[in-house]
Automatic annotation (TrEMBL):
This protein's name: CCA-adding enzyme
Binding residues annotated for ATP, in chain numbering: 12, 15, 95, 141, 144
Miscellaneous section: A single active site specifically recognizes both ATP and CTP and is responsible for their addition.
Keywords carried by this UniProt record: ATP-binding, Magnesium, Metal-binding, Nucleotide-binding, Nucleotidyltransferase, RNA repair, RNA-binding, Transferase, tRNA processing
EC assignment: 2.7.7.72
Protein's organism: Pistricoccus aurantiacus
Molecular-function GO terms, alphabetical: ATP binding; CCA tRNA nucleotidyltransferase activity; CCACCA tRNA nucleotidyltransferase activity; magnesium ion binding; tRNA binding
Residues bound to CTP: 12, 15, 95, 141, 144
Annotated family: Belongs to the tRNA nucleotidyltransferase/poly(A) polymerase family. Bacterial CCA-adding enzyme type 2 subfamily.
Cofactor: Mg(2+)
Catalysed conversion reaction: a tRNA with a 3' CCA end + 2 CTP + ATP = a tRNA with a 3' CCACCA end + 3 diphosphate; a tRNA precursor + 2 CTP + ATP = a tRNA with a 3' CCA end + 3 diphosphate
Entry binding sites for Mg(2+): 25, 27
Domain Poly A polymerase head: 7-126
GO biological process: RNA repair; tRNA 3'-terminal CCA addition
Amino acid sequence: MLDGLEVYCVGGAVRDRLLGWPVVDRDWVVVGATPQEMLRRGFKPVGRDFPVFLHPHSHEEYALARTERKAGRGYTGFRVHASPEVTLEEDLARRDLTINAMAQAPDGRLIDPYDGQADLEARRLRHVSPAFVEDPLRVLRTARFLARYTELGFHIDAGTRRLMGKLVESGEMHHLVAERVWTETEKALGELHPEAYFRALDDCGALDVLMPELSADDLGLEAALERLHRLPEDNGDRSRWRWARLVEHLEDQERERLTQRLRLPNAYAELARQVAKTRHLRLSVATLGLNARETMDWLDGIDAWRRSERVAPLFDLVSLEDTQLATDLALSWRLAAQIHPASLLEEGFKGKALGEELARRRFETIESALQKSD
């Protein structure tokens, strides 16, 4: 299948192999070939903007060597040139960071024209060329790689930091579509040190453009970043919980603006609302003490009666700050949840009266439970 083709493994697979990290996906560059030749060999075209093909058996991506030239605003404003004349070095030159601009030949030989291996050893994230400033998405990608490799001692090169700032000053960040901003942010939330992503964006001014609600308050942002590692033990989806903890301190209107701007998935937006309501309850209790009305309102607000699976993780979240409050809430919930609509139907309650009586009995149960716990 590959006989006669000049093929190189490129990018992340080469980088992670050199770091000793697991290689999950491999990308390939084909030099000196045409789309017609790839099709004749059974490869399936998948690239819309440039020639990328799936291997008919492994389904790994094989891209024809290409160059890019800036022709518009944003990360899509490029003219792509792919032809058999494009060299491997030219293809690697269009990449963002030197650690992503290495290739490996079939015989294991490393092709490293931009000193990516040296930057790996120096734990340095460095741009390949001044063309870095042509693509605003590279600001986010660089910050995300910092979130991934901070554990290993990586830092962003001073020159690259300056180019990140220059990209922000140019106004290019405004042309990033919400979906791409969120894709990089969601990936960063799943990395070992997501706080490094947001700090890097804040340092270069990108956070002011993309998430101004977070950057408006330095102390609030720093406290939010410290919360990213304080999650319920059985949290299900770490990225969703980290986002919720990041934005829980925002006012409702601020959080909703951010939700709309980034076009967040419903699962992220809804958990963020639940965690914000839980924070509001905890802060109110710290000042005024716990009462049945606030407890009932909180349970109603997180839709606990219909979505009981939401409750236990939020108790765990509360316990990170206030174990007694978590205990009191759990007791109130356990007793109130034992009052079912079916038993009230048997007593003859229907319609609106059923809902009112159900709420009344649950409230009284919670009130009694809290009085006994005092």
